[in-house]
Amino acid sequence: MEQIIATVRGFDGALVVIPEPGGDFPELAWGDAFFSYASDGQMPQNVQPYGTIVTKNYPDDAASDLDPPGRWRVNIHVDRATFRELTGEEPRRLSRRRDYAAADSVMPHPVYGALGWISVVNPGERATDTVVQLLRGAHDAARARSERRHEPGRSLEND
Is pTM, for the whole model, over 0.85? Predict the structure, then answer.
């Protein structure tokens, strides 16, 4: 987990937020990591992170069995073509049964797969390189969206 966080921190313009007790984030998010593109180092407003690492089950998201010690999951938003290549399915047409608790396997996110999110529980030898490549791609896509939003003369109505 620390290796992936350190890698993302090395991306130009990356903002990695890891909520801790006493901050502005809800207790449920403490210890998790949120990856965003933020050239100014400030948390983007009205923009979802492009990736996360979660270290525990969330309400309505327990299929990955993250509560036992040492279990965690990286989640990455990908484009439709990448999702199809990785899963063999369209994001909004998921029908295959999966073991969402299986470690080191790339698969649709158990809750947000239909929205183009993939996930990997405890990336290891098989999936770590793929995870890093996907995070790099998601970061670059987030940077491109940010640059388009901040083009001179662009209004919010164009987004």
Answer: yes
How many helices (H) and strands (E) are present in the chain, helices listed first?
Answer: 3, 6
Two tokens, residue 26: 């809800």
pLDDT, tens digit, for every residue of 18-34? 999 988 899 999 999 99
Contact (Cβ atoms closer than 8 angstroms) between residue 124 and residue 72: no
3-state SS assignment for residue 134: helix
pLDDT tens digit sequence for 114-132: 999 999 999 999 999 999 9
Residues 6+ apart with CB under 8 A from 86: 78, 106, 107, 118, 130
End-to-end CA distance of the chain: 34
Residue whose tokens read 């949120």: 34
The rounded distance, in Å, linking the Cα atoms of 158 and 133 is: 30
